[in-house]
């Protein structure tokens, strides 16, 4: 495992850190004893959510829109001590494949695929120069299958998974581990309009960190994702048909 020195010696950067799972990841990394964490968001003022938490002296606030590739390169030069990248920033648009607009498709691909790719490529040489480390990609169960009402999101996250597999193969020689996370529904603003059981972000974040510590390449961080993955391994067509009815 590339995090061989322990979490306590790592310097992390979390994208989309101002709310939801990103915020929970920053808090969980602090609780795990991380050395330092760069918390990024498009609006730096939104990172004020960390002002009153214990351990916020370890947090560096950074404004970064992952679709602005020049800014991504600037942040990579600034945060030159990063060894642990958490690709969390993402967007979700509703609509079936016959309803979704080209603007929605473009937005989901620009953020979830091209933005994540830009951040990964910018920080790969940084992590390499620091002796190796890890990249964590927050994907979704919908990377594996499709929920029809989230067509643009499904496609972008499936593409992101494929990109992450390519990244894993390409960066292995640089001592960079790629950890792909496939959560089910999480209780965040992104899914506030979806009525279904949801895991709490804090619990998911803790499970992700433990998965990285355990060296798990594919992390299913809560009960729903674990059950769906078991069924997917046994009969992926049955899972496809089940999600198609949602």
- The rounded Rg comes to 17 Å
Run of helices and strands: EHEEHEHEHEHEHH
The poorly predicted ranges are: none
Integer average pLDDT? 94
Largest sheet, spatial ordering of strands: 3-2-1-4-5-6-7
Shape: globular
Structural class: alpha/beta
Q: End-to-end distance, in Å?
A: 38 Å
Main sheet attributes: strand count, strand direction, barrel closure: 7 strands, parallel
Instruction: Please report the total strand number as a whole number.
Output: 7
Helix content: 40-55%
**Percentage of residues in DSSP E strands:** 5-15%
The helix tally amounts to: 7
Write up what this structure looks like.
The protein has 246 residues and is of the alpha/beta class. The chain is 43% helix and 13% strand. Strands 3-2-1-4-5-6-7 form a seven-stranded parallel sheet, sandwiched between helices. Strand 5 (133-138), helix 4 and strand 6 form a beta-alpha-beta unit. It starts with 10 loop residues before the first strand and ends with a helix.
Tags for this model:
246 residues, alpha/beta, 7 helices, 43% helix, globular
What is the compact description of this entry?
By secondary structure, the protein is of the alpha/beta class.
List strands and helices in order, with pairings.
Elements: E1 11-14, H1 20-31, E2 36-41, E3 59-63, H2 69-78, E4 84-87, H3 102-129, E5 133-138, H4 151-171, E6 176-181, H5 201-213, E7 218-219, H6 223-234, H7 236-244
Parallel strand pairs: 1-2, 1-4, 2-3, 4-5, 5-6, 6-7
